[in-house]
User: Fold this.
Amino acid sequence: MEIMTLLGQYIRTKWLARRFSTREQLEKWQDRQVQTLLARVLPASPFYLKRMGTLRLDEWRKLAPIDKKLMMEHFDELNTRRIAKEEAFRIALAAENTRDFTPQIKGITVGLSSGTSGNRGLFLVGPQEQAKWAGTILAKALPGQLWSEQRIAFFLRANSNLYEAVDRRRIQFAFFDLQHALAEHLERLNRYQPTVLVAPASMLRMLAKAQRQGSLRVSPVKVISVAEVLDPLDEAYIEASFDQRVHQIYQCTEGLLAVSCAHGTLHVNEDILVMVKEYLDERKERFFPILTDFSRETQPIIRYRLNDILTERRTPCPCGSIFMALESVEGRSDDLFWFWHETENRPVSIFPDFIRRAVIAASAEIEEYTVRQLSMEQVEVALLVNGAQAADAKRQVRQSLAAVIRSHGGKVPAIDFVPYQLHSGTKKLRRVERVFAFDEQQGRN
Assistant:
């Protein structure tokens, strides 16, 4: 572990947050960081060298964006360590099967995304990048100072050398495998007594319920949601159970994108990456992010379009940071709902957040829910309702969903209700999900 790199990054992260007083200063500094990165990366990455063509380094914003499919197709010539995709997949899949996540390739940590967007992605992280990541995450997410004693409980589908990098002398790190039984987790947590609890929203919900029932008895000073969209319904339940604000870390295969501040606002990590907004609506609120991460060299992320739907925050955050603030991470573009227009022969789309809020606002008795669009003509809803109000809740949800679909000009589909299945925690929870493929260009499913 590169301890001096970690400490240096920790100090820089703390200092940089206060260095810039205007967006113009920040953006000029970011531009210099990207050009410096390109000067180092291009000779070692045939993919990006060819893609730059005759563009000057200061013209990097003119590069056409890439996506996961293109990155994986050109994985061998994109990464700067000449690591073959086939070998990386072999190492990553073996780690998944054996649950031993320590093996590396040429000293490089290999990881595998969960594949919720349909195709699994690889990520490569070198020792220096690993140390910088640890320094950044400790500076942004750790309560107190670096020298304070902390016990971090980290729930994820897979462990990684990347996460183990935060395990220092006074900072203990314990990985909790989501594949293990909840009862085992509760027993271990009661012994460990974490000061920081990090888990997907669905697991935090399960732990919050156990805390209310008395089978879990912990008092974390910070609770952090990762890996899944944090639904407002779950957020309120978790906060009430632990008497703590739920913070968020927004991270994916493509990098450490955002961390919430003391006020709970997600701020983009503009001290390590550039996020360009590709707007999706006329009001310019929702957008796809196009990422350029100037902290990563082993697997460069340059002008990479992520298919997450983000909502920009319009009002300044009380913390005073000039880093871009997000209102929410709505989910994947794959989860846009599509319906036929009520009077015209064309489809209309509805963002996941409208569906989410339609259900939550329908009844105060709803504890948990999922909404799955099976086709243009059928939506399936599952509700977990408090008390004997299930029939009323279903009626109110049907009316609320129909109203939001009509407000977008859509033809209301059949809305069917099915029994709610408790989430197991072994796969990502998607409370709002479209399960059929839709071709927007041709306007048919």
Q: What stands out?
A: The chain has a mean pLDDT of 88. Residues 23-41 form the longest helix (19 residues).
